[in-house]
Amino acid sequence: MSTTNRQWLLKERPLSLVGPEHFKLVESALPEPDLAAGQVLLKTLMLSFEPAMRGWLDDVPSYLPPVGIGEPMRAPGVCQVIRSDNPQLPEGTLVQCMANWQEYSVGDPSAASSPRALREGTSPNLALGVFGGTSLTAYFGLLEVSQPQAGETVLVSGAAGATGSVVAQIARIKGCKVIGIAGGPQKCAWLKDDCKLDEVIDYKSEDLDSRLRELCPQGVDVFFDNVGGDTLQTALNHMAEYGRIVLCGCISNYNDATPPPGPNNLNLVISRRLRIQGFVMMDYMAQAGKAMKELSGWVKAGEIIWREDVQKGFENIPATLQRLYTGANEGKQLLKVADPQ
Ligand SMILES: NC(=O)c1ccc[n+]([C@@H]2O[C@H](COP(=O)([O-])OP(=O)(O)OC[C@H]3O[C@@H](n4cnc5c(N)ncnc54)[C@H](OP(=O)(O)O)[C@@H]3O)[C@@H](O)[C@H]2O)c1
Hints:
single chain; alpha/beta; Quinone Oxidoreductase, Chain A, domain 1; Rossmann fold; seven-stranded mixed beta sheet; six-stranded parallel beta sheet; 9 helices; 25% helix; binds NADP nicotinamide-adenine-dinucleotide phosphate
């Protein structure tokens, strides 16, 4: 075991695009901790990057408290138990937890985000990727919140991302006509050729408004929005009567210092009898087992495919977070810190 622990601490709160300059890399001695009953010493193997992490850096109330200046950045990940005072989690066990941006940590079973053992045979990539929180977000947001019916038109923004690509494929499995919005020819080709979406719109090179008019003459029944801002405003113009808009995320303004103006066409919500609903995936965790069983079936049958973007190197952690907001990531953004022992 190493005798040092590296951590990335929050140095200052970003006011625009988050980047390496907002964090400080520190190295400290790793004393042999006295583990209390039930605690485990964890070595970080793989980190997950999520757009919501930008919100944890702002000093505002949210569903999780802000990360404090001088604290290690909060981040979900997969770790390996390297010392244990917990018979449920013996040495060698791979666990999922709030690993944070650090090489070693103490896992406490009494903490809200206590370490949970990975299912036998599940790799860190799969646990954080297609069998992780983004797929559950896609499942509950689409099926529980919007309740799409076969034959309906489903529009998905951020469609080539971890969440959006699973939303789009579930909608396809349910017999919907699926249109994905993504940035760049490679992401759009993957969605059309490999994920088998009906149509794709490259918002970086095409005019979203005219493409939606062309592709959805009867209007959009379900809009699953990961992006917000102008994308939401434009999509609103194309909603069919009694359409549902699922607000999953608004990544286009996560790095803005001041909130952008709201959509100027909300009157359409009234005249077209629309329903707009936000949701937080964690609220559905009681049903996660059932959802994961169905998702696993689709993955094993090849009906849902996925992509992982695995960066490497502890020193590259802050730059990897930035990839989400520039669209550099191709699929679920992960970073490998170490191999299991
Ligand atoms: N409600 C919940 O419980 C919940 C849970 C998890 C995630 N989410 C939300 O789901 C969304 C997707 O998260 P994810 O983890 O799956 O990330 P992701 O989609 O894999 O990665 C983020 C993608 O967002 C797109 N993007 C970034 N900046 C953009 C901009 N200014 N305009 C348009 N698109 C932009 C980029 O794709 P392009 O290259 O195509 O632009 C980028 O690749 C986020 O909004 C996140 O906050 C919500």
